[in-house]
Amino acid sequence: MRVSRTKAAENRERILDVATRLFRERGIDGIGVADLMKSAGLTHGGFYGHFRSKDDLVAQACGRAVQKMRDSWIKVLDQTTGDPVHALADTYLAAKHRDNAGRGCTIAALGSEIARQSTAVRHIVTEELKPFIDYLSAIVQGSSASLRRERAITLYASLVGAIVIARAVDDAAFSNETLHAVANGIRSKSTPRPPKGGKKRIATRTPRAAKP
């Protein structure tokens, strides 16, 4: 039985939503296509009507996840009345984020795995992450564009690293200590710096995956 274009589009979105969550929870290699489709409430045979391969799904799902992560954190920054860097540190380095990998930052959950994926996967993740670094560059302190970009990358790398460590260790006190230490370090080095002309707006269109 053929489904309508609208229903097919809904099914594709459902697969992507489930894939972004399960990849972050279990890892890219931690779930196969059959189990993923079952979790989406769809049949295995329908998968190839939406994606060319699992690699194609990984690329689209990871790109989508990074885009949503980016938009979520930017929303936090846009709504804060204080220092946006402090707000980002407090939200990102919260226990809620650490304990909910399936809904959290894709780079923190899958960064090491993405590094081993195809060129197509790495490309789409790269292109979705770059605008977030550009955005951070507009809100951090620095006397030049190059220095602000350097500090933006340092900030994001510190956030990601803290979550990775906090999730990896089996000592709850040490995990909490890691989050608090990095948050305090970020706050101690940051002072409010409203970007000229307001916060930088970015495009949210997902780029096409590059051919391997």
UniProtKB/TrEMBL annotation:
**Signal sequence coordinates:** none
In the UniProt record, does the keyword Transcription regulation occur?
yes
Single GO molecular function:
DNA binding
Q: Which keywords belong to this entry? A: DNA-binding, Transcription, Transcription regulation
> Which Gene3D superfamilies does the annotation name?
Homeodomain-like, Tetracycline Repressor, domain 2
Segments of this protein annotated with the region Disordered: 185-212
Cited PROSITE patterns: HTH_TETR_2 (PS50977)
Q: Which Pfam families match?
A: TetR_N
Residue ranges with Basic residues bias: 196-212
In terms of PANTHER family, this protein maps to: TRANSCRIPTIONAL REGULATORY PROTEIN (PTHR47506:SF7)
Q: Which residues bind DNA?
A: 32-51
Protein name in the entry: TetR/AcrR family transcriptional repressor of nem operon
Q: Does the keyword Transcription regulation apply?
A: yes
Q: Which residues form the HTH tetR-type domain?
A: 9-69
